[in-house]
């Protein structure tokens, strides 16, 4: 099963928005996609191809995952990173994730897990920025992480076997 | 006799048809239940609770007679606010027939009517007065009107509560309905109730009323926060306070 998400999802989301908030409270304005945003495609619940064709670096990925000002995976997940005192308990522990999921399956979950679970609390770290409702002025048109950072995190998670 | 598959289909259709509101039907629990024991001890001791400084500021403002013709709050309500109707305070925000009035708005218009002048929303003096007045009603059960003209407004507030915001892209519901008791890094998520506000926030070291807390939360979501006294913040504040119905006022609570 392959589909082009870019064409479908904004429409669904805007419809949901319209149903949710009704007229008058918020306006979902359609912005242009940033120039450096790389398209991605979902197939069999995975994104097989690396974003923008980039190679990930696992040690950089570990730093991004634990940095509270960056990826901050530890906010919600337990990870086998030494010397971490506090981690969150919202999401599943990620030890062994590299043995349970393929790299492509991990990629979909990091890029935009709502392709799998629309109600998920987890942010899409490379979600189409046009789908973000009411971003702060500094964050409009941006993704949570850039494509290189996402690939670094995926490379790190894939080592957790 | 219905085929098992058809029965299962019917059951799943009925489950899907259940309003999502049932998820929120859990018994409301004060943020007090989710904070560390050391934070509870700080809240419970008037000499340790930093929010009591704001109560004292509020008390002074309450007793201050405006320049020119006019009366202090204390002239009508008593120097300790002993003449205030505490069960009435627990009903705020209220509907006055034309719209929703927050406790702070009521204090401000009362001041204005008595020569004290009006201040901008969430001015530190108004926060101090709001904290003092609400502290007078500490222990009273929150009792926001949910029927009549409030019902459609609460519905709008609930819609805003369920909407995702900002780059982090979560709704209020995601944390406060689905994951209370779980931790984000070291912090335990509460049900996001309003009964402790204005509350002293250890994270920023400031007294914060409910609307400001909502704004801070939206900024944390890397969203554009709703402006003070905007329709959205008033609706969200109203809805969140109505969820807290039955919980005792803890102002000034101490929260993360």
Please, could you describe this protein's structure?
The complex is a heterodimer of chains A (161) and B (256). With 161 residues, chain A is mainly α. Chain A is built from five helices and two strands. A two-stranded antiparallel sheet of chain A has the order 1-2. The model of chain A is unreliable at 1-29 (pLDDT under 50). With 256 residues, chain B is mainly alpha-helical. In chain B, 42% of the residues lie in helices and 7% in strands. Chain B has helices at 4-17, 37-44, 51-62, 73-77, 86-89, 103-113, 124-136, 150-161, 172-176, 210-220, 231-243; strands spanning 94-95, 100-101, 183-184, 187-188, 199-201, 206-208, 253-255. In chain B, strand 1 (94-95) and strand 2 (100-101) form a beta hairpin. The longest helix of chain B has 14 residues, at 4-17. Classes of the chains: A mainly alpha (161), B mainly alpha (256). At the A-B interface, helix 1 of A face helix 8 and strand 3 of B.
What is the global morphology of chain B? globular
What would CATH call the class of chain A? Answer: Mainly Alpha
Total individual domains of chain B: 2
Q: How many structural domains of chain A? A: 1
Going across the major beta sheet of chain B, what is the strand order?
6-5-7
Major beta-sheet overview of chain B: 3 strands, mixed
CATH fourth-tier homologous superfamily of the largest domain in chain B: Cytochrome c-like domain
- Tally of strands of chain B: 7
Shape of chain A: globular
N-to-C SSE series of chain B?
Answer: HHHHHEEHHHHEEEEHHE
Q: Strand order of the main beta sheet of chain A, please? A: 1-2
Q: Distance N terminus to C terminus of chain B?
A: 57 Å
Percent of sequence in beta strands of chain B: 5-15%
Mean pLDDT of chain B: 92
């Amino acid at each position: 099963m392959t589909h082009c998400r870019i064409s479908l999802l904004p429409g669904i989301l805007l419809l949901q928005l319209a149903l949710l908030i009704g007229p008058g409270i918020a306006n979902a304005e359609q912005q242009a996609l940033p120039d450096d945003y790389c398209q991605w495609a979902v197939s069999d619940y995975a994104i097989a191809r690396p974003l923008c064709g980039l190679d990930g670096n696992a040690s950089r990925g570990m730093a991004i995952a634990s940095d509270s000002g960056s990826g901050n995976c530890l906010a919600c997940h337990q990870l086998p990173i030494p010397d971490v005192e506090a981690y969150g308990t919202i999401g599943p522990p990620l030890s062994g994730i590299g043995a349970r999921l393929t790299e492509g399956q991990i990629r979909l979950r990091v890029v935009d897990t709502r392709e799998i679970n629309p109600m998920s609390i987890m942010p899409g770290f490379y979600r189409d920025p046009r789908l973000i409702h009411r971003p702060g002025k500094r964050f409009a048109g941006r993704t949570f992480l850039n494509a290189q950072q996402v690939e670094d995190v995926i490379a790190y998670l894939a080592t957790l076997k | 006799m219905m085929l098992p598959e058809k029965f299962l289909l019917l059951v799943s259709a009925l489950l899907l048809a259940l309003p999502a509101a049932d998820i929120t039907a859990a018994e409301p629990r004060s943020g007090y239940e989710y904070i560390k024991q050391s934070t509870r001890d700080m809240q419970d001791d008037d000499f340790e609770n930093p929010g009591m400084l704001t109560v004292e500021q509020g008390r002074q403002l309450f007793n201050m007679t405006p320049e020119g013709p006019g009366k202090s709050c204390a002239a009508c309500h008593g120097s300790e606010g002993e003449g205030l109707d505490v069960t009435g305070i627990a009903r705020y925000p209220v509907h006055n027939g034309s719209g929703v009035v927050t406790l702070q708005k009521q204090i401000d218009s009362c001041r204005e009517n008595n020569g004290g002048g009006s201040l901008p929303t969430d001015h530190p003096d108004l926060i101090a007065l709001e904290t003092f007045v609400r502290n007078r009603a500490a222990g009273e059960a929150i009792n926001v009107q949910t029927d009549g003209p409030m019902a459609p407004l609460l519905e709008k507030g609930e819609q805003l509560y369920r909407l995702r915001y900002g780059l982090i892209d979560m709704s209020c519901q995601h944390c406060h309905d689905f994951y209370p008791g779980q931790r984000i890094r070291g912090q335990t998520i509460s049900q996001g109730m309003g009964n402790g506000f204005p509350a002293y926030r250890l994270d920023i070291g400031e007294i914060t009323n409910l609307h400001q807390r909502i704004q801070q939360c939206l900024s944390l979501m890397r969203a554009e926060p709703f402006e003070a006294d905007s329709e959205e913040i008033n609706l969200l504040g109203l809805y969140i306070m109505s969820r807290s119905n039955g919980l005792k006022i803890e102002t000034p609570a101490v929260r993360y």
